[in-house]
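Kindly inspect this chain:
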Amino acid sequence: MAEEIFDVWKLSWIDRAGTNDKDEFDLSEAELLTLDLLTKSQSMNVGELQRSIDVLPAQMSRVIRSLEQKGGKPLVSCSLNLQDKRKIDVSITDLGRHALQSYQATKLATLMSVLSDLDESDRRDFIRILRTIRDKLVTISEAKRQHP
């Protein structure tokens, strides 16, 4: 079952990469996760972002640098943390919000097309199962953050 879920996830990314509606920002998974987190917060420091998406510090630095200069335009902005000068705060720009919304719209259109073939009963079951999986993943993620 886990392999089936993984295959669907891979196909979702392959579909995104091969679509004619090419993502103008060419965002990686880590970049998308970072932008998504920043839409839910006013600002996060680099360490908080790194722990939230579970990447190595060096990788997080590369993700931030990339988002600061995507296509010559910043999708995030960085500033010194006023309370702790050793930390860098990261915020999403309006263009970063647009990039994330554009990606989500493309992805949702594909998913809606696929899901429209399910009958009502299958859709209800699918949503119920997805919510159960999501809740379990949230519980696991929270436990990892409390006991790294």
User: Anything to note?
Assistant: DSSP finds six helices and three strands in the chain. The chain has a mean pLDDT of 87. The first strand starts at residue 44 and ends at 45.
